[in-house]
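Reminder: ligand-aware prediction takes two inputs, not one.
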Amino acid sequence: MLTDADIQLHAGKIRDDGYTVIERAVDPDLVEGLRRALERTEREHAIGPARTSFEGFKTVRINNLLTYDDLFWQVPLHENVLPVVERVLDRECLLSSFCSLVLGPGQEAQPIHEDTQLIPLPRPHIPITVNAIWALSDFTHDNGATRIVPGSHKYDSAPQYGKHYDAVTATMPAGSVMLFDSALWHGGGANNTDDRRFAFSCAYCWGWMRQQENLQLGIPQQTARRFPRRLQELCGYSVYKGQFGHIDNHDPIELLGRERGKRMVWEATDARKARTGEAK
Ligand SMILES: O=C(O)CCC(=O)C(=O)O
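Here is what comes back for the chain with 2-oxoglutaric acid:
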């Protein structure tokens, strides 16, 4: 488990370099179980390769992953990953998207891009989304390890789509997780081997932002009711700073049968005043 110093170190690297790698963050048995669960899901739901060049014609991506297998629930909550994200964003962050990234043999390299470029904020900006790429196989030069441009999260522009950029290949052993500021220039590599490259992308954003996947509508409520509370909060059953995301002054977590959730900021203000005897 990460110490507070480890968390600080990784959060600092994300701020300074735009990325960090947590080597062997995930227990090998869990890595194996997740791979098997992914293969089973692809098979049982007959999920084939993506249909756009950006996603990769030889790449299988399963979106809305939390609905397919309870084992996947452990991914966004992982104790060696989530605390680093919470240090860069905050404890009220949200899961933005969670999908598999399985590159088949012959998959070409993805264009270098960054994941916040459609958001109309001038660059550079504070980290607004942090992406965790989970390596479920060894990531190598040959099988399509993610390519990154270190420090590019501080550039004042996004990359030109389709242009060649010199990039570093983020090789890492299976079970490792690369976390990066999503403004970092990056892209999947080319898979020139006969084997599939298994990975997850698990991205988190601030609680005041719109999530990339609509998890409140995409995950059936019966499924979300079975999630651990922290996962429910991450999926958007939460209120940012007691203001953003409420339903008629109630925390949406109550929809999942939880006891009273967080107080709204205006109620909390009055409660504090009553406690401290401040004038209303
Ligand atoms: O597959 C990878 O290594 C990265 C994929 C990626 O960056 C994306 O699809 O946005």
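Residues 28-44 form the longest helix (17 residues). The mean pLDDT is 97. We will return to this case in the review session.
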